[in-house]
């Protein structure tokens, strides 16, 4: 066993120990360091399990349990031609990504294994394989290369180039907002990846910080191309069995509506939301559930990034808003246009294709003025199919937690909510009264005494009665009285319209 493999086995052991709740990550780390030190003195170290028992971090039962899990994992995940080394990540689709060795070429690869529920569906398996083949045909520096795909023991797996580095999500999590020029250079590389994918007819559908790996020398690599499409049904909607398509923090409005004909402009929106996150360290919207988030992508304008982080230039702030336009017709229309606009931002120039935004350092006034008109009319409701995007199990867990919280705070909040309800009811009632008063405010002719107004209303009622009974002459007379009593008022206009309406009815 090589030294590297021994270390990886130790890490795998430790990962299971932590995952099974048998010990803490720090204890594993301490034992791995002891092993490392012994090796550096040229001593063949004890197995990590033995060290952990000696240090009192584990007992024999714990070690047995870990070995059992390890064995089970190797059996279930025995993928011919690959040696699994360690778990490197777990994603929203419920898949796990392992570092593995491709035996035939003796090289390290990343192996994504999807949960068994995917492999059960024949249509899914076929789509998964055909999409992976399409991705494997691509050859671009900024796209993670696909190597192999298959299905074994009820698991679908996808083998890809292994990239040493951090995802954009990890970078932001570790150090907050990414410096603007660096963020733009990463974005430019993702745009190059999208351009290449688009030339081959591929749309990503799940561009997000978790799917952009940043390798050495800041080379950005786009991951999971095509996988989101497979996770969705043929009609573009999330699988009816409730397979989630990942976080909706970056979802385009058209995807949130469940539209099937999403194109590169949807990726451009998601990239905009990703750049937003890079520049501000925050997602454009926050929400307590995927549904709330998707509704916000459909209906709310994001706050200009410059307002959240004043270090962001006006050019970049406007670029993000341009990419995140609600209507795809209002965004850059192609990856080439997208690239041009990012290059402009790198030069400190505001987007050429974006709608004019007003002045002001916050980059918001013009936008606000504009969105209060056209965009406000575009605000829409999410489709009923959105609920399919939500993992039913996660939803159930959330719902349970919500109920428990609700019971706990109900007592304390009851009085508060009753008074709040009364206050809201009162405010609404006052508002209605004001609106009614304004709408029905009689247009009083200057100088017309209020009693004449009142009488005019009574006469209108009387006239309506006559008209209803077919007594047209009487009705006509009363309408004329109204006009005489309150000329130029709205009552007079009503009377005139009735007179016109009656025309020659009744013979006169
Ligand atoms: N090719 C790769 N090389 C190295 N690490 C990778 C590679 N692909 C994925 N990873 C790591 O695995 C983690 C999980 O990836 P995965 O794609 O499963 O999750 P995700 O993107 O967060 O969610 P989703 O399931 O929605 O794609 C990533 O965050 C990244 O750290
Ligand atoms: Mg991913």
Strand and helix map with partners:
Elements: H1 3-19, H2 25-40, H3 48-54, H4 60-76, E1 82-90, E2 96-102, E3 107-113, H5 116-119, H6 122-136, E4 146-152, E5 155-161, E6 166-167, H7 168-175, H8 180-199, E7 212-214, E8 220-222, H9 227-231, H10 253-256, H11 264-280, H12 290-299, H13 305-308, H14 314-323, H15 335-346, H16 365-378, H17 392-439, H18 450-468, H19 472-485, H20 490-502
Antiparallel strand pairs: 1-2, 2-3, 3-5, 4-5, 6-7, 7-8
Helix pairs in contact: 1-2, 1-4, 8-11, 8-15, 11-14, 14-15, 18-19, 18-20, 19-20
This protein binds adenosine-5'-triphosphate and magnesium ion.
What is the helix tally? 20
Instruction: Quote the beta fraction.
Output: 5-15%
**Class derived from helix and strand content:** alpha+beta
Question: For this structure, what is the CATH homologous superfamily of the largest domain?
Answer: Transferase(Phosphotransferase) domain 1
Give the helices and strands as they follow along the chain: HHHHEEEHHEEEHHEEHHHHHHHHHHHH
| Strand line-up across the major sheet | 1-2-3-5-4
Helix content: 40-55%
Tally of separate domains: 4
